[in-house]
Amino acid sequence: MESGLRIFLLILCGMYNMLGFAANGTDSVPVPPVQSESLKSMIQQEPVIQPEIKRRQVTEAQIDTENFEIGLFAGLLSIEDFGSKPVYGARLTYHITEDIFFEGTLGFSKLGQTSQEVFSKTLNFSDRKYSYYTGALGYNLLPGQAYIGRNTTFNTALYVVAGIGSTKVAGETRFTAMYGSGYRVVLKDWLALHANVRDYVYSIDVTGKQKKANTIEISLGATYFF
Amino acid sequence: MRLLVISVLLSIGMGTSFAAAPVEHNVVQVYDPYIELHTGPGRGYPVFYVVSRDEWVEIIVRQTDWFKVRSETGIEGWVARNEMLQTLSPDGKRIELKEASQEDFVDRRWEMGMLGGDFQGAYVITTYGGYHLTENISTEVSLSQVLGNLSSSVMLGFHLVEEPFPEWTVSPFFSLGTGLIETKAKSTLAVVKDRRNNFSHYSIGARMYLTKRFLVRIDYGNYVIFTTKDNNEEIREWKAGFAFFF
């Protein structure tokens, strides 16, 4: 009895959904708007959009804006003295104008072994964590397009970034200057892919002598526009 | 049975949400002889299509000062703000698209920025957020990291900022504040001890409006850190950076 009722209710809800979709479908079928005769002859196909009959005002607030970008990245970090290790992180970008953007980045990695540790065993770092944050300004230097296949075009931009931040390496927190360059491929209005090469410069003395270290990062990432 | 009822209720909910989704299009009519559609949201992207007078376009999305539109023939492209200004709403009025200007800079409510500089020989990085109570008075919360050779500190500060001439392109300000500083000694040194102190702070500085929602700022200040020793520590700081406002 109960299984019969179950089947009946399932059929009922299936039909309901189908009706719902069908009704929605009829809503979006375009109806040709009233146009001048010359225009009608110019446009053979049915127009995709039509003006609303209701005389309403379009205001700035109704338009969806997408000036923020948030995303994750992963790559390889060549940490001076500590070998190369995988790196991953997150980035938030605010596009101030079509050219300038601000971005904040958090990144995490691990220290490999220094050659001193490997050969003489006189040094041993118990804290092998590596993390950093940076705040930077970016400039879209070379906007352009990429053509993949015959029918696909993506907007792209080669951008440069420079900023400051801090790096935590082997328990020491160091002031860090960062500069680099990236390539953005916009797949959809809301989705972009990024490839980045960045250099992080900080001064450090964990291996004995105070010196400037250059840590170079290559990464790939994806971002969401909102 | 309960599961069944839930699934039915859910499917009805889904059904209605699909059926009742309102389709509100932002459509505008071209008033200029024509508007140009670029392939991307920037002046560097080429023009590939034009929409002529009296035709309608639907505004899909906005990125900075560029608007993605769909023409009656279904072609999508990006239109610059100054061309969008030459379009009419269905009610026959021109659409208003404000550009952030120096006027908005004077009237700004929220401000966020990042500064870097020198804190008595150490590096300092500060992020701050501000809220303007009036044109002249604002409150700010700042979070700073001080990175020295012997120690590193984190500072949380609350400030009251007075800006006597907000309409000037280079607008000076005075700031008074207080907060908390936590200092951690470098792990290899025993000379400096970990500690937490209160501080008071005053500074003078200036903001300069650059373009759109963008400004630069410099700051010169003095900190008094209240220690348990006989003398309080006095620290001079300068920093410079950029900010944007809403």
Written description of the protein model:
The complex is a heterodimer of chains A (226) and B (246). The model of chain A is unreliable at 20-32 (pLDDT under 50). Chain A is of the alpha+beta class and 226 residues long. Chain A has an eight-stranded antiparallel barrel with strand order 1-2-3-4-5-6-7-8. Chain A is built from three helices and eight strands; from the N terminus they run H-H-E-E-E-H-E-E-E-E-E. Chain B has 246 residues and is mainly β. Chain B folds into two domains: 19-88, SH3 type barrels; 104-245, Porin, CATH 2.40.160. Chain B is 11% helix and 57% strand. Chain B is built from three helices and 15 strands. In chain B, the strands form three sheets. In chain B, strands 8-9-10-11-12-13-14-15 form an eight-stranded antiparallel barrel. The two termini of chain B are 53 Å apart. Classes of the chains: A alpha+beta (226), B mainly beta (246). Chains A and B meet through helix 1, strand 4, strand 5 and strand 6 of A and helix 1, strand 1, strand 4, strand 5 and strand 9 of B.
Order of helices and strands of chain B: HEEEEEEHEHEEEEEEEE
Q: Tally the helices of chain B: what do you get? A: 3
Q: Give me the oligomer status.
A: heterodimer
Catalogue the unreliable spans of chain A: 20-32
Report the mean per-residue pLDDT of chain B as an integer.
85
What's the arrangement of strands in the largest beta sheet of chain B?
8-9-10-11-12-13-14-15
Based on CA atoms alone, the radius of gyration of chain A comes out at 28 Å
Portion of residues in beta strands of chain B equals: over 45%
Number of domains of chain A: 2
How would you state the average pLDDT of chain A, rounded?
A: 82
Helix content of chain A: 10-25%
Which pair of chains has the greatest number of interface residues, and how are they split between the two chains? A-B, 69 and 70 residues
* Number of domain modules of chain B: 2
How far is the N terminus from the C terminus of chain B? 53 Å
**Any idea what the radius of gyration of chain B is?**
27 Å
| Total DSSP E strands of chain A | 8
Poorly predicted runs of 5 or more residues of chain B: 8-23
Just name the CATH architecture of the largest domain in chain A: Beta Barrel
Strand order of the biggest β-sheet of chain A? 1-2-3-4-5-6-7-8
Q: Remind me, CATH topology of the largest domain in chain B?
A: Porin
